[in-house]
Amino acid sequence: MAEPLLSLRGVKTDIGRYHILHGVEFDVPEGGLTMLLGRNGAGKTTTLRTIMGLWRATAGEVRFAGRNIAGLATPDIARLGIAYVPESMAIFADLTVQENLTLAARSGPPDQKRLDWIFSRFEALKRFWTLPAGNLSGGQKQMLAVARAIIEPRRLLLIDEPTKGLAPAIITNMIDAFRELKDGEASLLVVEQNFAFARQLGDTVAVMDDGKVAHTGSMAAFAADDALQQHLLGMGMGEHQ
Amino acid sequence: MKKDWLPLLLIPAVAVVALPLVGSPTSWVTLTAAGLAMGLMIFVMASGLTLTFGLMDVLNFGHGAFIAVGAFVAASVMLALSPWMTVDSLWLNLAAVGPAVLAAMVVSGVLGWGFERVIVRPVYGQHLRQILVTTGGLIVAEQLLKVIWGPDQITLARPTALRGAFLLGDVAIEKYRVLAVIVGLVVFAALAITLNRTRIGLLIRAGVENGEMVEALGYRIRRLFVGVFVAGSALAGLGGAMWGLYQETVTAAIGAQVAVLVFIVIIIGGLGSVGGCFVGALLVGLSANYIGFIAPKVALGSNILLMALILLWRPQGLYPVAKR
Q1: pLDDT attached to residue B298
Q2: Is B1 on the interface with A (CB under 8 A)?
Q3: pLDDT for A100-154, tens place per residue?
Q4: Which of A113, A192, B186, B277 is 20 to 30 A from B310, comparing alpha carbons?
Q5: TM segments (chain B) (predicted)?
Q6: What value does the mean pLDDT of chain B take?
Q7: Does the beta carbon of B13 lie under 8 angstroms from any beta carbon of chain A?
Q8: How many angstroms separate the CA atoms of A181 and A67, rounded?
Q9: CB B107 within 8 A of CB B69
Q10: Beta-bridge partner residues of A14
């Protein structure tokens, strides 16, 4: 069996006095999309931030492409080819759309072909290219946050609730974009509350509960098991469609 | 987004309102020139501090140390080259002032590098400790200045070419103030170009908004911060040298005295905003000179009053930086 691109083993994270992650274990296979699900407060965002080095793991291993990255600084982790889209989007509001994307393209000016592909998915970014990002609507900011992560090819994308606040038409575009990415160059680990979206896109799933991973497996099997969904998420996926 | 011109318009508004209160147009022109010169010198000293706060949330109460060191180093070089300062030759005068200013910037920059490593770095993210240790750093620096240069104030005469005034009809504008305005505008232009036209400037602007996200994009913000801290310290040294020549005396307390104005300016401007710092500095310079002339008894509190009024209008300062 091929080695997973990302593998978490026994990862514990404390924030101040609080123990948030209690030994998280799951894999993200190369070239697929793994959905990280769970109730609010289960530790999904903390898991992404720990992988990114924004919060330090107090124990355990975060292996990326065979290398333990748990002790690395955030910029070094990013430079290994991991991009991160936080739930808050964290766009630079005083910078223009163009400047946001220029900054994200570390290796030089953004590639025009790549930009055209992004514009085909997120047309608003072209329209508001020279405007400060703070002027964008919530959905457009989300598009920009995702575009920033994919402006250059990356091996792994960590995306926290990408569909939050988005109109259905934009969600469709995002689904198409993520499909193309996972079929091409990248693997994705996506935290999502929109189960219809999760089911359409996910290849594998890891479900968190109380700072641990309570279930891993294929998304198809999970989507078909209403009792398991009810047990782990408090409701079946069918209720979210 | 529409440009926010209102704060910028405050500058001519303050000048226009002051005209009838001052009464004499010639005095008004003189005061305006003095206010602009003072404001731009404060801007030179404050610009680095506002950026370091914006980038790393560092409250550096020791910034005055770089101003004082700049003033003392420049004074020492100029005193050593005093024959060139007193001769009636612009070029020889500049040959004395140039190296003095350069030395002030280099020494303040190096001191800033050491200050960041030894004093600031251990207290990242801890505001109360930052205030305590950087204030301590300022006190230690002041005492060291007294040890090295002695406790007495140094009298620093301006070079011959920068003494006197340009006469425009009845209006007299001091030559040194014109130079201060030119230097201040050059520094502002250089900062504006760096921040708006270069990749490093883009990184600084992004880092001021959300340093964590800049790191997540793969950039080492701490290195950037050290660079900005050193550059800001060097600019404070330049400002200190200019302020010493402006006052024509240098004392160990010069940094602490000016630091009060510097903090007022960066708060008025909006912490982290270089544009706001520029506008705030000009407002402080102008209002201090106008009020000093119109109502000398309230001159001391005029800057605090200005800050209070602006914060009542815009609680985050004139140009608040969008923070994460």
Answers
A1: 87
A2: yes
A3: 999 999 999 999 999 999 999 899 999 999 999 999 998 899 999 999 999 999 9
A4: B186
A5: 33-53, 65-84, 90-115, 176-195, 224-246, 258-283, 290-313
A6: 93
A7: no
A8: 23
A9: yes
A10: A19
- What Å distances lie between residue A224 and A102, A199, A221, A227, CA to CA? 43, 10, 5, 9
CB of B36 within 8 A of CB of B282? Answer: yes
Q: What is the DSSP letter of A132?
A: B
Q: What are the residue boundaries of the structural domains of chain B, listed by start? A: 6-313
Assigned token pair, B130: 């930052």
Average pLDDT over residues B81-88: 93
Distance CA B123, CA B116 (A): 10
pLDDT score for B1:
47
Give SS3 for B99: helix
pTM (2 d.p.): 0.89
CB B222 within 8 A of CB B58: no
ipTM: 0.93
The predicted model gives A83-91 an average pLDDT of 95
Helix, strand, coil % over all residues of chain A, rounded to 5: 40, 25, 35
In angstroms, the Cα distances linking A103 to A133, B2, B272 are: 13, 23, 19
For B28-76, write each residue's pLDDT tens digit.
Answer: 999 999 999 999 999 999 998 998 888 878 889 999 999 999 999 999 9
A148 at the B interface (CB within 8 A)? yes
Minimum distance, in Å, between the CA of residue B107 and any CA atom of chain A: 31
Ordered structural domains, chain A, with CATH: 6-92+155-240 (3.40.50.300)
User: B6-313: which CATH architecture?
Assistant: Orthogonal Bundle (1.10)
Comparing C-alpha atoms, which of A134, A132, A197, A202 is closest to residue A170?
Answer: A197
Cα–Cα distance, A188 to A170 (Å, whole number): 19
Minimal C-alpha gap between B204 and chain A (Å): 11
B212 inside 8 A of chain A by CB: yes
The candidate with the shortest Cα–Cα distance to B115, out of B150, B80, B140, is B140
Of B138, B120, B147, B141, nearest to B58 by C-alpha is: B120
User: In sequence order, which ranges of chain B are alpha helices (DSSP H)?
Assistant: 6-22, 25-56, 63-80, 82-86, 90-115, 127-149, 175-197, 199-216, 221-247, 254-269, 274-294, 299-313
